[in-house]
Design brief:
Methane Monooxygenase Hydroxylase, Chain G, domain 1
Length: 229
């Protein structure tokens, strides 16, 4: 035989290595998603909770982020140096989910927007603000996607808060989401998916405003001064 088949053996070894690596990634992502589902279940309780119960629910959710940090650490060990973008699609949605859950829990505990430092502390991974990281990181796009999801969840909470008898929360949510929307307007979004989702924030705001209008019409909320505080 005149053909040297060594190259095919090398290709086979490379393909087996790649397949094994993807299997490891899938396994880590499954565990990651399982933790996210648990945190989601915890945070979903706020939609039927009293205002006094909300901080404890937020603390319970934030307490599970040690597991999130470990899942991401496991993924970072699997991905070869400078090959982040080759595999990032496998976990991007899971990262967006946990970023949203972190932002939601922080809002519930403080009524403030999550900071970059809190994101990195809860996930144990750097946020790639300057697009200069080649190793494992959180992308700006995933970070911004989580904020859009946050506005959707807060619009849902505004409705359910009234049902639970918390008439002041919708006004606070309205102020927060409008400020977040203003922040988005400062950005020149080039990502098509993100730009389309950004447009949805306007509908979330409209939904919240309808709740606020109804609460105000019925004179169920406290004074404006109390809400600003």
């Amino acid at each position: 035989m005149s053909i040297d088949l060594t190259i095919f053996k090398q290709i086979e070894a490379s393909m087996e290595e790649e397949s094994s690596r993807k299997d490891e990634i899938y396994s880590c992502v499954r565990d990651y998603e399982k933790t996210c589902r648990y945190i989601t279940a915890v945070l979903n309780r706020v939609h039927s909770a009293s205002s006094d119960e909300v901080p404890e629910i937020a603390r319970e959710a934030l307490g599970k982020f040690g597991e999130v940090k470990q899942h991401l650490a496991n993924l970072s060990k699997i991905v070869p140096h400078q090959q982040f973008y080759k595999y990032s699609d496998h976990w991007s949605r899971s990262v967006q989910k946990s970023l949203f859950l972190a932002a939601f829990a922080i809002y519930l505990s403080s009524e403030k927007l999550i900071t970059l430092e809190q994101v990195e502390e809860l996930h144990g991974v750097k946020l790639n603000l300057n697009n200069d990281l080649q190793d494992f990181h959180i992308t700006v796009e995933d970070f911004l996607h989580s904020f859009v999801t946050l506005t959707d969840e807060l619009s849902r909470l505004a409705v359910n808060s009234v049902t639970a008898g918390d008439y002041n929360r919708p006004l606070k949510i309205s102020k927060f989401v409008k400020e977040l929307y203003t922040g988005f307007q400062l950005l020149n979004l080039k990502n098509d998916s993100l730009r389309k989702r950004f447009d949805a924030i306007k509908y979330h705001i409209k939904k919240i405003e309808e709740v606020v209008y109804d609460v105000s019409l019925r004179k169920l909320s406290g004074s404006t001064d109390e809400l600003v505080e």
